[in-house]
Design brief:
The protein is an alpha+beta fold and about 200 residues long. About 30% of the residues lie in helices and about 15% in strands. It has helices at about 1-10, 20-40, 45-65, 100-105, 175-180; strands spanning about 115-120, 125, 135, 145-150, 155-165, 170, 185, 190-195. It has an 8-stranded mixed β-sheet with strand order 1-8-4-5-3-6-2-7. It is globular, with a radius of gyration of 17 Å. This is Secreted protein. InterPro entries: RlpA-like_sf.
Length: about 200
């Protein structure tokens, strides 16, 4: 009888291939790991600080992987390219997601009215991707415009969602640079609004 209770308590861990949220988190983890590798291969005076900050971002991604039932530490670079044009699904809140971004807005943010504050309580992190200012999201489809305001310095940016990630909003390098505080790679106090 002890065996049946153990089987009932074994959680199912999903791989990136099984879940859009897990895929987004794995991609973000891979991008940050790639950034760290680049800093170690070609260091400059700021490399140590950048690496330390990115390691903190990686730990946050791993916490989100665990909370979402994803394989913790699974890393992927460019894995989203295998599924071009796939919209972000409006997934129901999954068991074990308490404290994750999806639990803050379980109905999915796609139905939010323009100008409405969304993703309450979410932190904003950096994807490590280059290019023009943009964002990725697990709640809004590509083409959605989001305004992100950092309450610690009152800087804001408006970006278009271009891909799927494991967070309500994940900013690329150019967008994050517009709102970050010097030396920080995580925004804990942010207001996120859907503006288009």
């Amino acid at each position: 009888m002890a065996n049946t209770s153990n089987a009932a308590q074994t959680p199912t861990t999903r791989a990136a291939a099984d879940s859009t949220v897990c895929q987004g988190l794995a991609t973000a983890l891979g991008n940050n790991q790639k950034f760290i590798e680049g800093q170690r291969a070609d260091p400059d005076a700021q490399s140590e600080a950048r690496i330390a900050n990115r390691e903190a971002v990686i730990e946050e991604i791993k916490r989100k992987q665990e909370a979402s039932g994803c394989a913790v530490g699974e890393s992927a670079q460019g894995s989203q390219a295998a599924q071009p044009g796939q919209p972000a699904p409006s997934q129901p809140a999954q068991g074990g997601e308490a404290g994750g971004d999806a639990a803050q807005n379980p109905g999915g943010g796609g139905a939010a009215a323009s100008g409405e504050q969304v993703c309450n309580g979410s932190t904003v992190t950096l994807s490590g991707e280059g290019g023009a200012p943009a964002a990725s999201s697990n709640q809004f489809p590509a083409g959605t415009k989001l305004k992100v305001t950092n309450l610690d310095n009152d800087k804001s940016t408006t970006v278009e969602v271009t891909s799927v990630s494991g967070s309500c909003v994940l900013l690329n390098n150019a967008a994050f640079e517009q709102v970050r505080e010097p030396g920080k790679f995580l925004i804990r106090r942010a207001v996120i609004e859907k503006v288009g």
